[in-house]
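Open question from group meeting: does this chain pack into something compact, or does most of it stay loose? Before anyone orders reagents, we agreed to write out a predicted structure and look at it together. Recording both the input and the output here so the notebook holds the full record.
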Amino acid sequence: MVDFENELCTILNTHSNEIEKAKKIISFIEETLKQISSWLKNHVFDSIQDEIIFFKEIKPNIVAKLIFYKEVLILIATQPIDKTKR
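Structure tokens returned:
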């Protein structure tokens, strides 16, 4: 999870264009969720508590970020163009 947050911060800090930033983050999170899905097929949790924490806290946090950045992208992409910035 620390690597996920670090990579997310890196993307946030390296892109200045908000649309590109949102697209990169969405792509990164979708890839991360695919990797998690593959990992889960072979992983056995050490305890029920670990499994509960994963499915109630860790994975929902990642999915929430995906939903958030998809909404951000929609908001940014559909903003009217400010004529003074042209």
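Observations to bring back to the group:
The chain has a mean pLDDT of 91.
The chain is about 80% helix and 0% strand.
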